Amino acid sequence: MDAIVGFFSVALLTATLRSAAPLVFAAMGGLLSERSGVTNIALEGLMLLGAFAAAAGAWFTGNALLGLLVGVLAGMLGAVVFGLWAIGLRADQIVAGTAINLLGLGLTAFLVQRIWNQAGGSPSVARLPSFEVGGSTLNVLVPLAFLAVPVVHWVLFKTTGGLRLMAAGESPRAAESVGIDVPRYRYAAVLASGLLAGLGGAYLSIGDLSQFTTNMTAGRGFIALAAVIFGNWTPLGTLGAALLFGFAQALRFQVQALNWPIPQDLLIALPYLVTLLAVTGLVRNSQPPAGLGKHATSD
Amino acid sequence: MSTSASPNGRVTGPAIPGPLDRLRGALPTALSSAGAVAIALLIGAVVILLSGQNPLVAYVALFEGALGGVEPITETLVAATPLILGGLAFAVAAQAGLFNIGIEGQLVLGGLAAGLVAALPLGLPAVVHLPLALLAAVVAGGIWGGIPGFLKARTGAHEVITTIMLNYLAFRVSTVVIDLEDRLPVNPNLQATNAAEAGARLPRFVEGTRMHAGFLLALLMAAVLWYLLYKTTLGYRLRTVGLSRGAAAYAGIAWGATITLAMAMSGVLAGLGGAADTLGLQGRYYNVAAGYGFTSIAVGLVGRNHPFGVVLAGLLFGALSAGATRMQNTAGTSRDLVSVLLGLVILSVSAFAVFDQFRRRRQLAAAAGPGGPGRDRTAATADEPELESRPPQPAV
Lengths: 299, 396
Known about the structure:
heterodimer; A: 299 residues; mainly alpha; 12 helices; 72% helix; globular; B: 396 residues; ABC transporter involved in vitamin B12 uptake, BtuC; disordered N terminus; disordered C terminus; transmembrane (chain A); membrane (chain A); cell membrane (chain A); transmembrane transporter activity (chain A)
């Protein structure tokens, strides 16, 4: 009994929040993009660009806040390229997203080599401030991540712009026939997803750590996208899914700390396994935006 | 089924294209692929320039490392081998309308399974042991590829998410298996399986190089896949499902079974890609992510998901990969640039594909002519991105 009480500690809670925060950022971005009708598999690459640029910015300026700004801008820049292809050129969105992911992986590794003349990552850089909760520290971006959820909810369901954005995602043709500029709303949504994925990436490199390492996102962008699907394309559902995945990640450190006899490999695999089960077993009745992946009609 | 008949009673339809027409039809596609690659290389040159190096020096080193002599050429072919098989894996799934990002994981498990069977000291002759090792890769890759197909068929789970998660799980499986030295022929210190028995290796056949029979296996599989896709009922079903799920259902084709099979076939090809590296190049399986998965996607896309296009694209990316080592060593340009080039190639190819589509639509509109059979252009094509490799549609 004591073991179970000790298990659900403040440490586990904060570890869950810490693991979930970058997922929440990226997932909110993915949600906006998907709701506007753009499948955003590029989240992974956008996060990685954000993580790298934030570390590079912090290294060059010596200021973590400036680093954060650079990281966000890099995420948005990547989103612009993605948008030009996925919306402007009307290329296949998944193909365009894959290209962004490859570019993110290659460009960041290439630049690490060029800037710091070493493989694998950056040296230690300035880090964003953090505060203490019940004995463990949380980064300032953590509350911001969870604040993004009600903001996205409000934007989507309570503003005219949000409703139009969702109309563009549900039925681009109907939206167009009532005069909604579908590409414009989609660009806005994709740009916002770049901003949020950039924040999620910056969180990893200069929030949770003080260093960029090659491919440090390790699939978090994809997991964030799975959270959107698992959360049935709603902000609150997505938050719940991100917390579940964060919990699966946090579990590993907690079990290690308590010395429970659970194989390490199983624990590392857990977030991926949970994601797999989540999208297969539990979302049979999910309803994606009807216009997802469809282009507007006007040539 | 009603077929439009002309006044003299003879059934009319579009002329069936002969081999020469088809070749002529493939030419613009090949040219636009080449153009797309050239543009990607040009932008890559700008990236090198901006990073403070001489792109000409880097590209010359890249070229010499890929094609400058017998040894570089064999290295290109060796590097192309898993990429061709991975590209074929991507292509067969894409023909069925599926996006297989799980090639990496299927390749890893195929390589692992082949490595384990090859390392068993069974004392078997090569005619038995080598096929057995390849069979292990086929089974492992096929199962790992078939799972996301089955899950999509049963629950609608999107294959992009499930295959990516299965990639991470495959790495985990590999890491766990490599540590089981009590039970399996593995070496945790090396992070590899034990060396393959001589009889289980893909033979090398060019003296003084690493050229191995895996390349021939890749070519053979390309031919087999071509036959399967374009000359059998199964291939017809697979492509119909890829073109339109609704049309396939109307024709009585079982969607779920077909996509499961397509994904399993994709996994089989990827598994063979892993086996080729294990049994031909390394002589054992190493527990390191080789990163072929994403390159395979680029190979499939550049090859327009046609088996022969994939072979050409695989050779191109094999050359880039083989040359990258020389580029890093002599010009000091990081081989990570190849990843950048891959991303640029995909962007460039997909942009060109869009232009091709416009061109073809214009041709269709011109062919229909004024007063011709009406075709609601937007309604018919707006929602379905046309894949380059799609065959001419039979008149119904």
